[in-house]
Specification:
Chain C: This is PBS lyase. Chain C: It comes from Billgrantia endophytica. Chain C: GO terms for molecular function: oxidoreductase activity. The complex is a heterotrimer of chains A (about 80), B (about 575) and C (about 325). Chain A has a single domain, classed as Alpha-Beta Plaits (2-Layer Sandwich). Chain A contains two helices and four strands, in the order βαββαβ. The radius of gyration of chain A is 13 Å and the shape is globular. Chain A is α+β, with helices and mostly antiparallel strands and about 80 residues long. Chain B has about 575 residues and is of the alpha+beta class. In chain B, helix 1 packs parallel to helix 10, helix 2 crosses helix 3 and helix 13 runs antiparallel to helix 14. With about 325 residues, chain C is an all-alpha fold. Chain C has a domain of about 100 residues: Leucine-rich Repeat Variant. Chain C starts with 6 loop residues before the first helix and ends with a helix. Chains in contact: A-B, A-C, B-C. At the B-C interface, helix 4 and helix 16 of B face helix 10, helix 12, helix 18 and helix 20 of C.
């Protein structure tokens, strides 16, 4: 069965200038209950890899450098 | 990988689920006997998992001496559940609820106190006083985590349990599961197992259409309900769905228990109260639903009559606790509690004893019908538990499981053939090429639940729904996962299909209406106490099929007597489902 | 550098000594996951780090540790130059709940002048309920800073000691800050009704509505029947929230003389007040309540109707 990929606007935005994942920080990735944040291999910074967000905020609240911003997913806004 | 290649981890007590009940259960086992090995398995990360990842803003069912009694509480919950409760389990909760508050208080959980240090109880219901606010309740998970570390509970994050294991005598033997990031299988052998896997909150589809915009934490997708079924445990009253009032589209709680004591209320489009029912129940939800659909709809949270100081207090609580993104949701729509009523709606359906009464059957010791297997929190059948019930039954299960594990000599033997078959099932989606993505299959089955099972329930529609759900099940061999994360979702979809089928079958089995909207059958609108004053059972028969039965309601410890009439006076004059 | 037996903790210790403050900061986060009691030592070290961002990070996680292990460092951190650090330390101190830490808290209170530090220590002392905190708390009732005075009221309220009443009554009546007056009025309910009742009657005329609410609640809690007249007056307050609390309080007093005033409240346009009034009439359950209750059976608000049905059954039971 053939498949297609579709673009989707994701609710979690990481400010790469502030993110310190390159210093070994994985806080947002650790706390996400749905495991949707991963290290982007191209940048070494955190990013949202799966659009599966409960907008619950631990990633934003626990980020040591205020690099993470959670928006309400577009479909709910 | 073969079954024999997987190393087996042994522990005395295994706890599955690290949200609310699970950590309390694990700590309790250690408090009972520090020499027992306890492992806490969590699909996400214990630090921020489960229903209270960002804390909780209050206790809805606190039985504090001087404000209410266990007997009064049991009467109210019995009536709110149309009589179908296991009162011994309610009594165990009611008697332990205050000691648990004291324990949590000593651990550092912040409950609201008056200026002399006494608990600041709020009267929300008419017959008893049960609400204890927690405006600074955002640190609950941190406190649990601290206790887990102090008691040296072994924590395994990012593991999904997929099936429970039994020994040759039918007693619990452990579980098999998978790492959600590597897809590595794991087998844990245990003398006793406590399940604390939360609600089945990903069965229905939120009206937004966003798969993860659910009322419950979407990690609580019903894995525990499915595992309990497959290991042969009884599930109870699954037709008593959870449906909650919430902020429309945001799909999070409007928190009547926060705003109520401060003067806010649920109103219709005229800005007027309309709910006749006193206690949170299916009856209340039926009234809510009718107003929502009626000429005075929709329904709103009304706060615009309150003083600026009060609004600020409400905003502080609602925007820092439980679901703190509420504030930015309102900002996005330029909604201000001072000027606007906030539109409300009802949630998608689910199984959750925290707010209703369905789940894996447990008795007053937390025991399921499988020896050595215990259940606590939103997944277990004790009615109207809320957060405090999860803590109390976590504690009860911890005590029961510790005793069971100590009474059991050798580690149980494992069924290698079963493990091999389960390993095959776990890994199957990774081996499929050009198959169906998990999200697509999940959307389909959850949309069917909305179309065919969401109350008001209609017999013929539910029959069609069941057939369509079974047709989705037929597609499982084509379910494909391209990475470990998709495998997690693919395995979750299988639990969701199990739960959807159970929801349909359980709803068809009870041929009456009960619990207001939760089980409102349009073509069978009457409550029928002659045939259905009982719990319903759903279990796996010898052929592996879903089977049903009745379980008598245990003799009441607290007779309702005159209270029932008083309550009925408060409640509604009309027939329950008129 | 000290060596730790636990390899994970040793690795964190090494990262905490890294010259890069970013690495040290991330290492602090890892401390939280260690079950080793010695992790607290490393946290204390991080609380003293030269880099403010590292100290902030350490302060943010102090509530993940058992505060008794780090009490001294928390007290020191109360005086940190950085506000985030000071706030976190103050919060963590308030969770100590171990009477054993009272002596160092009291010693620190003695030598502190910074209002933030003083308020933080008082807040930490409050749940400990130690008698030794009484004298310093009484002194701080006259502090220039309203936050300090408010926390001092808290300490004294929780102590529930007879001899502190005059000072609390004074604050409740005449403090310049409404939140201090409200807290002090709320604290009076531990006293005998004849001692706390008269001042609460006066406070029912406070210029701030939340203070007036607190006074009405207090008179109800104390069941101070001599307070009926001012409660009746308060049932005509311009602020409906005060009228509501006055009605609830009259219900707690359960005296028939309150019935006419409650009857007026039962016709108020604000449904929350009508609820309170009918609830109070049901609690009083005297025959003269009946007409008001029967009228409320047809109230447009279902909560009022529900309560009216309940109140009716109370009347029937009393008859």
């Amino acid at each position: 069965m053939p498949t297609a990929t579709q673009r989707t606007s994701v609710p979690v935005i990481v400010d790469e200038d502030k993110c310190i994942a390159d210093k070994g920080c994985t806080v947002c990735i650790d706390v996400c209950p749905l495991d949707v944040l991963w290290i982007n291999p191209d940048t070494g910074k955190a990013h949202m890899r799966y659009d599966e967000c409960w907008y619950c905020l631990p990633c934003e609240a626990d980020c040591p450098t205020d690099a993470v911003k959670v928006e309400i997913p577009y479909l709910l806004r | 990988m073969n079954a024999s290649d997987i190393s087996v981890i042994d522990t005395d007590v295994l706890v599955i689920g690290g949200g609310t009940a699970g950590p309390m259960a694990a700590v309790t086992v250690k408090e009972q006997d520090p020499s027992l090995d306890v492992m806490l398995l969590e699909k996400a990360n214990v630090k921020r998992s489960g229903a209270i990842s960002m804390g909780m803003d209050g206790l809805n069912n606190a039985i504090v001496p001087g404000h209410s009694t266990p007997e009064q509480y049991i009467k109210e919950i019995t009536i709110a559940n149309d009589g179908i409760v296991h009162q011994p389990a309610l009594m165990a909760y009611a008697q332990r609820s205050f000691p648990m508050i004291e324990k949590l208080d000593s651990w550092g959980v912040h409950f609201q106190k008056d200026e002399t240090g006494d608990y600041d109880m709020k009267k929300v219901h008419h017959l008893g006083t049960y609400v204890l606010p927690m405006p600074e309740g955002h640190n609950v998970k941190k406190i649990l985590y601290r206790r887990l570390r102090r008691n040296r509970v072994q924590i395994e994050n990012r593991f999904q349990a997929t099936r429970l294991l039994k020994d040759a005598d039918g007693r619990i033997a452990g579980m098999i599961g998978v790492n959600t990031r590597t897809a590595e299988p794991i087998i844990i052998r245990a003398k006793a197992v406590i399940m604390a896997t939360g609600a089945a909150g990903r069965i229905g589809l939120p009206t937004s259409g966003y798969l993860f915009g659910t009322y419950e934490n979407p990690a609580n997708n019903g894995d525990g309900h499915a595992m309990a079924f497959h290991v042969g445990a009884d599930l109870a009253n699954l037709e008593c769905f959870q449906i909650n009032p919430l902020l429309k589209d945001y799909n999070g709680p409007a928190c009547a228990y926060v705003t109520g004591p401060l003067g806010g209320f649920t109103a219709n489009s005229q800005g007027e109260r309309f709910i006749e029912c006193d206690y949170w129940s299916g009856q209340m939800m039926l009234e809510f639903f009718k107003e929502l659909e009626g000429g005075n709809g929709p329904v709103f949270l009304k706060l615009d009559h309150l003083a600026e100081e009060t609004i600020q207090e409400i905003e502080t609580v609602l925007h820092t606790n439980e679901r703190p993104s509420r504030g930015r949701f309102h900002d996005g729509r330029e909604i201000d509690y001072r000027q606007n009523m906030v539109e409300m709606h009802i949630s998608e359906v689910g199984f959750c004893s925290g707010h209703s009464a369905s789940g894996v059957w447990v008795d007053e010791t937390g025991a399921t019908t499988v020896p050595g297997l215990y259940g606590a929190g939103d997944m277990a059948s004790v009615a109207h538990s809320y957060m405090l019930g999860a803590f109390v039954y976590g504690q009860i299960c911890g005590e029961s499981a510790a005793a069971f594990a100590k009474g059991r000599g050798e580690m149980p033997s494992l069924d290698q053939a079963f493990i091999a078959a389960e390993l095959e099932r776990i890994q199957a989606p990774l081996k499929v090429a050009d198959g169906i993505p998990p999200a697509q299959m999940e959307y389909k089955v959850r949309r069917l639940v909305n179309d065919y099972l969401q109350p008001p329930k209609v017999t013929r529609k539910m029959e069609i729904g069941l057939q369509r759900i079974l047709a989705v099940r037929e597609d499982l061999p084509r379910l494909q996962a391209t990475d470990p994360h998709e495998l997690l979702r693919a395995l979750e979809v299988q639990s969701i299909i199990d739960c959807a089928e159970m929801a349909a079958r359980a709803s068809l089995y009870r041929t009456e209406s009960r619990w207001g909207l939760y089980h409102y059958r349009v073509d069978l609108p009457e409550q029928n106490d002659t045939d259905w004053f009982c719990h319903t059972r759903l279990y796996k028969d010898d052929n592996g099929n879903m089977a049903h039965g009745k379980r008598p309601v245990a003799p009441y410890l607290v007779e309702l007597g005159e209270e029932k009439d008083a309550y009925q006076k408060l409640r509604v004059r009309k027939a329950a489902n008129a | 550098m000290k060596r730790y037996d636990d390899p994970e903790l040793q690795e964190i210790a090494e990262r905490l000594a890294d010259p890069d403050p970013g690495i040290r900061r991330v290492a602090v986060l890892a401390l939280v996951d260690s079950g080793e009691p010695e992790a607290a030592e490393l946290l204390i070290q991080a609380l003293k780090d030269e880099d403010a961002a590292v100290r902030q990070e350490a302060a943010k996680v102090v509530d993940e540790f058992d505060a008794e292990d780090i009490a001294d460092s928390l007290l020191a951190a109360l005086g940190d130059a950085d506000e985030v650090v000071r706030n976190a330390a103050a919060h963590a101190l308030a969770d100590l709940k171990d009477p054993g830490v009272a002596p160092p808290l009291l010693a620190a209170l003695e030598r502190s002048d910074d209002p933030f530090v003083v308020a933080g220590i008082l807040r930490a002392l409050k749940p400990l309920r130690v008698v030794a905190a009484q004298t310093p708390a009484l002194t701080r009732l006259n502090d220039d800073d309203p936050h300090v005075r408010r926390e001092a009221v808290g300490v004294l309220g929780w102590l529930k000691a007879e001899e502190n009443l005059p000072a609390l009554i004074d604050r409740a009546k005449s403090d310049a800050d409404p939140e201090v007056r409200r807290a002090a009025a709320g604290a009076l309910v531990y006293a005998a009704p004849e001692r706390a009742g008269p001042p609460l009657m006066v406070i029912l005329d406070d210029p701030h509505w939340q203070v007036r609410c607190e006074a009405a609640i207090g008179i109800g809690k104390l069941d101070y029947r001599a307070g009926l007249e001012p409660l009746i007056a308060a049932s005509h307050d311009t602020t409906w929230q005060v009228r509501e609390k006055a009605a609830e309080a009259m219900g707690k007093l359960r005296v028939a003389a309150a019935v006419p005033a409650l009857g007026e409240c039962a016709r108020d346009p604000m449904s929350n007040l009508r609820k309170a009034a009918i609830g109070a009439l049901g609690a009083i359950a005297e025959p003269e309540c009946r007409p008001f209750i029967e009228l409320a059976l047809d109230d447009p608000d279902p909560d009022v109707r529900k309560l009216a049905r309940w109140a009716q059954s109370q009347l029937d039971n009393a008859a």
